[in-house]
Predict the structure.
Amino acid sequence: MATETLKDMKNELDEAVLEDIPADASDQLEKKRGKASGAAVIAKIKTIVKKPFSSKKAIMITVGGLILFIGLMAGGVLFLGKSSEKVKDAPHAVTQKEDAKAMTSLKKPVAFEDIIVLKPFDRIRLKEGSDMKLISMDLSLELTDTRYKKEVHAMEEKIRQIITDRMEEMTFLELRHPEGKIMLKYDLLKGINSIFSEVMIRNIYFTNFLMQ
């Protein structure tokens, strides 16, 4: 009787233990599943959170690259523009220098090897009876050859005297007309060349002719 009772108690205990084991195991499994699902949710949240930040970073990098590219392009355009302006301005500057040189050369009196410029004749008295009694003039002598320059310079005072004497023999009426000036020119050519052994004066130019 006692033996049967002990067996019955052992069987009940074993059944109780067997019932408890699956219950504990299922609880632990459920807990593990809960933890796993929670970790997965957290991982997804982190991924979702990271994506906007990573996309913003990419956008910022892209925008920065575009700004840098635009800046480089603008700098290149400005540099090329300035270079082209310098190249365009260079011929213009050369032309201005050449024009300045040309103007300077025009201001300088032109000197010819075969021309002798005499000193001005001031207030030569004309022949009596003229309305205009005085004449002032400048004239130049054209040589037949540049070799005669020294000889003509050596006789300059004599030449001036010939010119003065001839002018004093003329009247205002004779000199007021072109024909009178032409006659004066040929008379002076004849008189000046007469003092040399050969013809040295080809022409005479009146550069100033003022009667008072």
User: Anything to note?
Assistant: The first strand starts at residue 115 and ends at 117. The first helix runs from residue 2 to 107.
